[in-house]
Amino acid sequence: MKRHFLSTRLWHWINLVCIIILFMSGLNISNAHRYLYWGQWGFSPDQAWLAVPRFPGWATIPDYYSLSSARDWHILAAWPFALGLLFMWLAMLINRHFWRDLKTSRKEWRARAIWSDIVQHLKLNFDHGPGKYNFLQKAAYGLVLGVLLPGMIFSGLAISPGFESAAPWLVDIFGGRQSARSIHFIFAWGIFAFFVVHIVLVLLSGPIGHIRDMITGGEA
Amino acid sequence: MKRRAIIAGIGAVFVSACSKVADSKVGSSLLSAAEDWHRMAHRALSNRTALVREYAKSDISPVFRGNGSVTVDTDDYRKQVADGFANWRLEVGGMVAHPMSLSLENLRKLPQRKQITRHDCVEGWSAIGEWTGPQLSTILDAAGVSKDANFIVFRCADTLSGNKYYESVDLVDAMHPQTIIAHQLNGESLPIKNGAPLRMRIEKQLGYKHAKYLIAIEAVASLDDVGLGQGGYWEDHHGYQWYAGI
């Protein structure tokens, strides 16, 4: 097992704190208007594609309904989150973590190879060959690092009326401001789903060693 | 059940840690500084006069939701409504060379801007409407804003939870080409719920900045002595961000 780079470890833990703050303050913001729409506009329940349940205080920051304080936290944590992700991508490309560990080969995309990976996962057999990560891990990390996390930043920017004049096309890419808001919400739950699976798999495959390695880097 | 209690417990510890941070001096100044970083980033990334998206007539939403104050609960306002706002005045004052008192007729005679724009509420919803009115910059140029003025304050006739509504922006947003004093929505006089007879359109910021039932525009050097000093009703009484471009 290769060591985790210092950049990876630093980003991992800073990002964890950012994600928790952004997610929980985001749930508080969601409580302000619990309806999601597609397109440019939407303002009443009959136009909504989803009525979101109200999130309880223990799941939100702050732990009572306050749109203004939740926005304070959301707006603050967005900075280390976005700059951290940019830093992590640059670091991964420069220190070869991306090319060596995350990039998939065409061979790995074969149905039979993917199926055997799934079977091994379900058998809770986490031993894998010479590569650091198996295909499912690469796919999951790729989806999170390449789609969900940057997607949160871009859909967040597309919701911002002050940013719009800098890149009006960004709103169009999402198909309108309310679509961007819906995608922001869906991606947030995608990240939550990754978080749950990630924690479960760490718990099943030797949590102490994993957490230690993510702090110290692990043995060479 | 036990596991849920543990998760809720961890959540509660984290949240209470967050409220400790928010209550501390460093924490709260960090939380309010972040808003300024966004403003500076937005200003750095786009030209000061860059326009927000304008839509086609077919994009206009079937209704334009009224939110916050949806009328002004005074006898004077009811009388103004009955009179078709014939006696409504918009005072332009503060740090200007030529204070003015404008009627709706005066405002309608100025060069008009029509814009179909999207209104984004801080709560998350959006509506699209066509607004008509003179640019604020036309009026500020005519009034001659002092070099020492830094903000434009918008005074309103309405009261929310017992407090007078007001708002403010800096001169960048005040002079923006799409910042207009709207007297029409979708080709008709402003409906009461949308701020009749006059409301601001500050298109690069969220809805609570778009002061309705507008009675006065004031140039000031500092917001400290206006209201409770935070720059607006929502800022003063509910802790909302003064820069609402996010």
Chain-wise SSE layout:
The complex is a heterodimer of chains A (220) and B (246).
Chain A: H1 6-32, E1 35-36, E2 50-51, H2 67-94, H3 97-102, H4 111-122, H5 135-159, H6 168-173, H7 177-204, H8 207-216
Antiparallel strand pairs in A: 1-2
Chain B: H1 2-23, H2 25-45, H3 75-82, E1 89-94, E2 100-103, H4 104-109, E3 112-120, E4 126-134, H5 136-143, E5 151-160, E6 163-170, H6 171-174, E7 180-182, E8 184-185, E9 188-189, E10 199-201, E11 214-220, H7 233-238
Parallel strand pairs in B: 1-11
Antiparallel strand pairs in B: 1-2, 3-4, 4-8, 5-6, 5-11, 7-10, 8-9
Give me the count of strands of chain A. Answer: 2
Averaged pLDDT of chain A, please? 92
Count the beta strands of chain B: 11
Instruction: State which percent range the strand residues of chain A make up.
Output: under 5%
SSE succession of chain A = HEEHHHHHHH
Q: What percent strand of chain B? A: 25-35%
Using only C-alpha atoms, the radius of gyration of chain A works out to 19 Å
Largest sheet of chain A: 2 strands, antiparallel
Q: In terms of structural class, how would the helical and strand content of chain A be classed?
A: mainly alpha
Structure classification of chain B: alpha+beta
Oligomerization state: heterodimer
Instruction: Write the H/E string of chain B, N to C.
Output: HHHEEHEEHEEHEEEEEH
**What is the average of the pLDDT values of chain B?**
93
Strand order of the largest sheet of chain A: 1-2
